Amino acid sequence: MSKGSLHRKKNKCIMILSGIISLFIALCMSLLLLSVLLKGGLLNEKLFRQTLSESTYFDNKIDEVMQSVSDKLSLAGLPEEISEEVITRTAITINADKKIKNGNTEKYDGMSQFGDKLTANIYDYLGETGVVVTDEVKKSVELIVTEIAKAYDTNMTFLFAKLYNEFHDKYNHIFEMVIYVSAAVLIICSLMAVFMHSRKYRGLRYVGYGILAGSAVTEAVSVLLKLNLKGMLPDNKTEYYNFVSKFIDKSFSQGIFMCLAGILLFSLVSLATYYMRKQAI
Amino acid sequence: MRFNIFSKGHMGHRQTVIIRGIIVTLLAAVISLALFFLVGIKYTDTMFAEFSYAVVQGSIYDDAETDNDIKINNITEGTIDESNWVSPVVDSQYGYIICDEVGLNAPLYYGDSENVLLKGAGQSVSSYFPGQGGTVLVGGHDTTFFGCLESINENMKIKVNTEYGVFEYNVTDISIVSGSDYDIKSDKEQLVLYTCYPFGKTDINRTKKIIFVCDKVSGPVIGGAGDE
């Protein structure tokens, strides 16, 4: 076999191997971007709470809480107006956020603002009606506020968030691992592609192909995953399901940004290839 | 004569590099997508099934706030006139299966397609409805809604709350079988719950099923006017 044909054969072999490495880079890139997408979306507790706060879910909740507190106030012979400035959408949203963040464990002591404001409102009312505040009255007010705060706490329990937290805890670490492993394999494959070629810029080209393919796959798969997940859920038109739907939309809307990040990386690799080639020539 | 698009005589080096780049990128993308459909989708489906379970179960806990579409009729005895009774539509929810002792609270659907089993328990369309006097065959996933069946023992009570009545059954037999066939009886009302066995494994090749046979204790009867 002539030296020229041996050289051609070697080049062909390197080309095929580089192609295979490109495929691995594409796989690792899409795995990495999808894991980041899921971790930053569906497994993002902050996004979950933020979407809940922004959704219309609390519009219904406020009526429910109001009703419960009003019932308790009526039982104590107090007008329901006392709770008007205490139970607001903002207060409910903040307290719900705190409770979900702490796994529904925060008791009403953590909502001291609620208790303090309610107590102040009751004393204002008693003052207006000419009731003399004795130690006995103080004790009664404290008891009423404790009872109402307990009722408020019960109403502000979000068991669906507990289930979501369980889901989050189960998968979060898995995707953390996937991110590290796929990033490591991506770097190793890229180095292999670069060092396989005597002219490094040629290897870098294959890295770019893999990155571009991986970015495109990420976007396509994220759209498919979103449709798949939405298809799995009942199509109830309640506030709760509207919130879940919004959360899924938000989670996967970042897929396009992941794809753009990949394209940006591809542009950087292409630029590096261009300069390295220029230097080599 | 062989035609080679990569031959340098046919086109310049730059064009060869561009075409090679497009082909490698496309091939890598297509193969990655194919691999996702062949391997990855199994794992994402398992993960999404658990998310779906968390959402559906969460909606049950949150029932009061979300005014669920299902309105349970609390009739526990008597006869429902068959001519006035409307059979649930396939793939729609018509009740709940509840066993407080083990924390079972699953939406009950008519039909047991894969899509339905992601949302709750599914009653086989070839079986009878509660109250019709035959076998009510209900399946569910052991990784989600029917996972708690692992703790069910004989003599425990299972309630089926439907849009037309509330039924109570007593667990009388628990058995593990191979295969998926079950004889539907028309002469005795029994609630039969089944799920994959062993519990909690994500191996899709499991062929064993665990079956919980429950005899009717109470609940209305669907029949002609005057039947009891």
Verbal overview:
The complex is a heterodimer of chains A (281) and B (228). Chain A has 281 residues and is an all-alpha fold. Chain A folds into 2 domains: 17-51 and 160-280, no CATH class; 57-159, no CATH class. Chain A is built from 10 helices and no strands. Chain A is rod-shaped. The two termini of chain A are 30 Å apart. In chain B, the strands form 2 sheets. In chain B, strands 2-3-4-5-8-9-7-6 form an 8-stranded mixed barrel. Chain B folds into 2 domains: 1-68, no CATH class; 70-223, Sortase (Sortase, Chain: A, Beta Barrel), CATH 2.40.260. Chain B has 228 residues and is of the alpha/beta class. In chain B, a hairpin with a 4-residue loop joins β2 (93-99) and β3 (104-110). Chain B has helices at 13-61, 63-66, 114-117, and strands at 79-81, 93-99, 104-110, 121-123, 135-139, 157-162, 166-178, 190-196, 208-218, 221-223.
Kindly report the oligomeric state of this protein.
heterodimer
Poorly predicted tracts of residues of chain A: none
Identify the CATH class of the largest domain in chain B: Mainly Beta
**Overall shape of chain B:** elongated
Q: Biggest sheet of chain B: strands side by side, in what order?
A: 2-3-4-5-8-9-7-6
Mean pLDDT figure of chain B: 84
Q: Assign an overall shape of chain A.
A: rod-shaped
CATH topology of the largest domain in chain B, what is it called? Sortase, Chain: A
The major β-sheet of chain A equals: none
What's the main sheet of chain B like? Answer: 8 strands, mixed, barrel
Number of distinct beta strands of chain B: 10
The rounded Rg of chain A comes to 30 Å
Concise summary:
Chain A is 82% helix and 0% strand. Chain A has 281 residues and is mainly alpha-helical. The radius of gyration of chain B is 26 Å and the shape is elongated.
